[in-house]
Amino acid sequence: MTNQTSLTQDASALDQQFRMTHTFHLSLGASQPAAGELESTLKSSNARVDKWLILRRGGFYEHSITVGGIGEASARALRKALASLNSEIKVHVEHMLHFDSAAAKA
To answer: Which domain of life is it from (predicted)?
Structure first.
């Protein structure tokens, strides 16, 4: 029983030292959903947008959207929701774990 308690405390300490973000990479044609539709989908997922970069390449727009405040399962659900806006949208998501040095010192 002590080992289980110890493992739970260790996992809790690790959770406090790391934070997870997710970067969604979307490729959209000029006639596909606008940033407003993407933003609406992000808001409904309760994701916090940390960074949003839009590049135009020819007739396509590439969005790179980094969000925080959601877990892996929510990120996968959000990827499906973004892809469902239009069957031609290509969505790739990166799950990233960041070390929070300030939390580690506390």
So the answer is: Bacteria
Task: Give the closest residue to 51 by CA, choosing from 68, 35, 34, 38.
Answer: 68
- Tell the residue number behind the tokens 């690790």, with chain if given: 14
Q: Read off φ and ψ for residue 45, nearest 5 degrees.
A: -90, -5
- Per-residue confidence band for 51, with pLDDT thresholds at 50, 70 and 90: very high
CATH numbers and ranges of domains, the chain: 15-105 (3.30.70.260)
Asked if 50 and 21 touch (Cβ cutoff 8 Å), the reply is yes
According to DSSP, residue 47 is labeled P
Burial class (CB in 10 A: 0-12, 13-18, 19+), 69: middle
Reported pTM = 0.73
